[in-house]
Write a structure and sequence with these properties.
There is one protein chain. The protein contains three helices and seven strands; from the N terminus they run H-E-E-E-E-E-E-E-H-H. By secondary structure, the chain is α/β, with parallel strands linked by helices. Bound molecules: copper (II) ion (CU). Copper (II) ion binds next to loops.
Amino acid sequence: MKTLSGILYFFVLFLISKNTSAETVQIEFTKFDTYSIEIAYINGGDTIEWSPNIGEHNVEFLIAPQADLLPNKSKINEFHSVTFDIPGIYLYGCTPHLNLGMLGLVIVDKNLENIADIEKIDLSPVASSVLNHLLKEVSLNLM
Ligand SMILES: [Cu+2]
């Protein structure tokens, strides 16, 4: 009986630690002026880190689930870290290369409630084409 409660105790501890352990995802800039992960599927509370490793890039958020809660924009070639607590889709791009299609999506808790905001954003033809491609991939994965 004592052993069983001991096992249960550790099992509960394991469940708690599993639920509260937020993860950190690293995204790099590539030599093709893209982000190494274009669609990041994460859980609420997780953090994404962008590290300057190549080229002249940054991270600028264009759309968040709540318009007044856009994450901060980073400076060119600067380490940037954002923790995502609110579920939904976030769209970001590189300020100097957005028109060339350097953009990425962050999807928190598989929540697509604000996808309409992302679909109707006005971008350059190349950026729109990249975004449409990514959104198709998201709908294949999640819908
Ligand atoms: Cu760039």
